[in-house]
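Suppose a colleague, Dr. K., hands you the sequence of a protein chain of 355 amino acids and asks what its three-dimensional shape might be. Before reaching for any lab equipment, you can write down a predicted structure in token form. Begin with the sequence itself:
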Amino acid sequence: MYKLEDIKTIHLEITQNCQASCPMCDRNMNGGELNPHVNLSELTLEDCKKIFSPDFIKQLNTMYMCGNLGDPIVARDTLEVFKYFREHNPTMWLSMNTNAGARDEEWWKELAQVYGKMGTVIFSVDGLRDTNHIYRQGVNWDSVERSMHAFIGAGGRARWDFLIFEHNQHQVDEAEQLASEWGFEKFIKKKTGRFVTTQSQKKDSHQAVDRKGKETAELKKPKQEYQNRALTKQEQIINKYGSMDAYYDAVPIVCKVKQEGSLFITAEGLALPCCWTAGRMYKWWHKDPRVEQIWDFIKDKSAIDATQGLDKVFATGIFDDIESSWNTQGCSNGRLKVCATKCGAEWDPFKEQFT
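The predicted structure, expressed as tokens, is then:
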């Protein structure tokens, strides 16, 4: 797939911890109890120093923190890790995605100074004071607003990503105007892929619950204007191939991370090509998460433990094994299905979020 010297971008999941309980996040069960397969791992500065040597950091163009399960702002060493990367590469691009609902003003101001003009914070805020918490359960609006103002006020470059649901679609224009007034460089009307299933079943709503399992909001698709276009393209794919599974079995795979030279590091310190492959590891609805196909390639987590050295992970051949599977006809025969779902050449719900 690629060699260690080809890596130009690091996608770092520094923590599995988060103060929010978003209903469509794998960290919890529809916004309720914690995913039983998640152990709330978190990388320290010392862990990151073991994984990323100064020489390796010098070869990078970008490092960003996002991931599948946690939010970077709740990790203990997030700021220190960004400082470490900046120290050894003054011109690389730094960024993170966050719900913005934690840390004091001084922390945000310091982050802005570390980034300088070569970095941005992507604020994932899906509504205004009266609606953001409907999806971002547990996020306090006053904290969000304070974080935004502190970071931008200190010279930080910021982008606002607004996931559109039925309950907040009436606020898109108001939020975009507010973003302009507050100094955001970009406002993204994000057409969520969370209502696009990997199979042919249609999903029109999603019932959220709170930490105690009590039903809260029923999340519904927005009006057609704000829907992910993959919803309609899915029907075209089924007409062409007969089913989504038949599409996954045969579609050419154009790997996004291979093109970018990107590598994903989980909060456990595991190295995988992307957050999508890692995202199949711990689905909460499985009694045994190892039934997922990605475990056929991982086999032993210690083999991809990046704290033992990225060179050792690459030497296992896991990345080449994943790429080789793409040439197999049929996912039941060993083709890695998550690669076909996320990087299949004819259907891309991820890309459609931003169009």
